[in-house]
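Q: Convert this sequence to structure tokens.
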Amino acid sequence: MLRVLIIDDEPFISKGLSEKIDWPALGCEICGMASNGYEGKELINKLKPDIVVSDIVMPGHTGLELAEFVHHNHKDILMILLSGYDEFTFAKEAFKYGVFDYLLKPTVVEEVMAVIKNAVNTIEQKRNKEKNYEYLENALQESKPIIEQSLLYEMTVKGIVPTQNIKQSINLTPGKGAVITIEMYSDTQNSTSFDSISKSIKDLLLSKNKEVRFVTHDQQLLVIPSFSLLMPDKVVETRLKDIAENILGDISFEDRTHVSIGIGGMFTSINTLHSSYLQSITALSRSYFVGKGKIHIYTEPSTKHYNNNFSANLSSFIEKFEEWELEKILLEIEELFKELKYTFNRQLVLNLCLELLIKLGLVVAKWDKNFSMTVGYEQLERCKTFDQLLEFMKQTCVKVKNHLYETMNKNNIGVVEQAKRIIEQEYGNPNLNAQFIAEQLDVSVSYLSRTFKRDTGENLSNFLTEKRIQEAQKLLTSTDLKANEVSLMVGFLDSRYFGQVFKKIMKTTPSEYKKIR
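A:
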């Protein structure tokens, strides 16, 4: 049984998780529960659970701080965070500390069980791999070449460094170089084409007496050149680029197969092979933005193109989504994507798209309480290029806008009637205006004004002014109140301005009107 620790400052959450989940069926047992971050940290050190399910915002240490603590001190523990929408950015931040997954509150039993099941599978797979390495050590002398290749794969792709005994038993010292990852894309998923290109690349490099090793991973061929540790970095970088250019120049672009090449940062030992591979993948991610058939060299990530202006533009897009016409929405989302393209950060772009979808869902939910955004991260991730993602987001915005338009049309009459009711009740309030009414109804000022004008044929501000003057007429004829007193009662703080408005509408001053009546 795997041991699970629950940390949450809300007792009903902890109790619900412990009682409503069939833990034994998942191969787990609850080893403890904590009500705050301090107590949770103590139990982590004391109980050393396999899985920790923790809230993000709570007294003591936050879930984010606990995730960092576990990341640095208990690397074998899997962290699962509980998060509300307003904590979404915390959850994203926690992923850099190796958080396994997060769940949105309120939690659903089936979703919790699915995440726990995945966590259990991950732990079991990791333990099985550790057992496999024991077997590999025993079989090392019999299958040395095969094991070398397998270990090279594990080190480069998965970042699993072998034990010191294995290092001493076989030659895994790569010298100085960088991982060159060649990614192949084929519409037909033709494995023969992949094998053919891989063989061609290997033959090319070996014929040039290049000291290289190869690793195959999915539709990727990893080329690992090795140079002397004494060779200057600049010379190594030039030779790496030459190798990549030779590879690209030798490949025939047929059978709808396209190739992109990513060159990682420099490695100087087996301990940095994996980093170089990951950097080559980061470099390859540029093909998502600029297309296939190019060589991409890793550089330190930069978000200089992504600045505070984008956050402001995103907020503006959400705020004005209700009132903008569809054509304007599509133009604006294209402008948003222009700002994101040169970040060359696919993960950042996907996260921002997800944030946009969530916020659009909240906009629609104001009008349709039963609305649920059915588009999620999976659909975003399926987009193979930046342009596909843009098209997908545009299509989604069209669907959301159409649904919103239909729902708002159904509710238009209600909005206008509610606005009239507020004016009827609040006309004496000097702060009453279109902004005040819009805030009461939770709609934008422009939408309220446009809808009121369309349905009544009259401007909202004129309607309010006429209502105040109507009430002023009643007070002037039925009471002994003076004109300046009446002005205050109908929402005018400035009696002189009241007199001007009254005369404009009634063609006479308040005092003269009172005498006549």
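Confidence is low (pLDDT under 50) at residues 188-192.
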